[in-house]
Amino acid sequence: MSTQANTGIPFSYSHSQSPIRLLELPPALLSLVTSPSPPIIKIKAAPTPANTTGPRGSENHAVLCTPTQTFSLRHVHCSNSILLVQPSEPPPSNTEECEQQAFSLTSVGLKAVATAGSWLELIPVTPDCANILQGRIPVYHGWTEDAPALPATEEPTSRARLLDSMPVSDAEFSTAWDALLAFETNDGVACRPSTSVILKTITEINTSATAESFSLSSSSGFTVSAVLGMLDDAEIPAGLVSVVIGSMCDRVDESMEDEAWRLNTGV
What we know:
The protein has about 270 residues and is of the alpha/beta class. It folds into two domains: about 10-45 and about 60-90 and about 110-125, Sandwich (Immunoglobulin-like), CATH 2.60.40; about 130-265, no CATH class. It has helices at about 25-35, 95-100, 130-135, 160-165, 170-180, 195-210, 225-230, 240-250, and strands at about 10-15, 20-25, 40-45, 60-65, 70-90, 110-125, 140, 185, 190-195, 220-225, 250, 260-265. The chain is elongated. Residues about 50-60 have low confidence and may be disordered. It comes from Choiromyces venosus 120613-1.
């Protein structure tokens, strides 16, 4: 009597289970990480939400950041265990057992090497970057001796350190940084200018440009380095000059100069 080959697959559990953590990726993020040039993905610590109550309120929270977007990580439990398997050789069997089997098993089996009872879910969030950043950087009050530049109680930090420590993407951070006219002093300290400092910087630029017959509204534009050259006698931080120029001028796209600007006259 002829018999048909059994297509059953031997299955076994590994004695030592490997710890794993599963991460569910949205389709857009999956396409991003599997693209020919995948970007750097960061996982950052995030503060516990203010409305979190109960025993979960003391847990650590984290976010996943792509270059342009932030996702909150949520721990999701599943009712059925998820097994991670890999191919394995089936255990050897003696000839007598093989003769007693009506069907033969395949030569390659599966072995469960890890078990997961939960996974991490990604939820898109829109953090209030400007509000977070505003509370993290001090106000710059001026460059003269009668006006201390930064409060003595503030611990100085750089833009790079702020970016690494804030639970937001690089693009979201840059947008908030630009909106606050934040800059780094000549010593590399991140800060944001007060309104009086912004007005004083504009006055210094206009006064120096007038004295040097330097046009800020020429069709060819001007560079920040040229303005800094006019302000050589003043101790205005170069970063402050750059952000003030960026706030009141438009970039000249047709200029051959690198980062050329033209005064926005509203015309």
